[in-house]
Amino acid sequence: MLVLRQDEGDAPGPPQPLMGHQKLELSRRATLANRLQPDLFVSVHANDGPPRAHGPIVFIGKSPTARTLRCATEVERRLVRVMGGKARVETGDFYLLKNVRASSMLVETGFLSNAGDRAMLTNPKSRQRIARAIAGGIAAGLSAATAQNRGQSLDQD
């Protein structure tokens, strides 16, 4: 399932405390995700920061499952091939990572405040490559998790 934000109320800018309407929107997303019980919840964003900051970052919760860590690592590895930069999978204290019960990750595809990243993020062909990198990383991570779970089941029999 794909859910897209319809407005730019949360557009990049200096970090701000969550306002009431933003918390409500995030709460709705978490409620929807918890109701749907996905195998993996992925929230995709474009970052903002100092102009020198660049490259993708994948954030995971403070106590990630093995599945989450595997998927995040695979997504980041593929994104770095497309976007450049260094591989960064970091823990984050984000509302959705704390409130969605499924394995979850927040993918920052690059920095809109960086000219190079912005050029890639605004180019339709580059966005397709970024989307394929994310999808490929998710597929590889879930596939590895499934294979490992099968192996554990066989070991327990």
Automatic annotation (TrEMBL):
Keyword line: Hydrolase
Listed SMART domains: Ami_3 (SM00646)
Limits of the MurNAc-LAA domain: 30-139
Region (Disordered): 1-21
A Pfam family: Amidase_3
Gene3D superfamilies linked: Zn-dependent exopeptidases (3.40.630.40)
Molecular function terms from GO: N-acetylmuramoyl-L-alanine amidase activity
Listed EC numbers: 3.5.1.-
Coiled coil ranges: none
GO biological process, one term: peptidoglycan catabolic process
One annotated Gene Ontology cellular component of this protein: outer membrane-bounded periplasmic space
Protein name (database record): Cell wall hydrolase/autolysin, catalytic domain protein
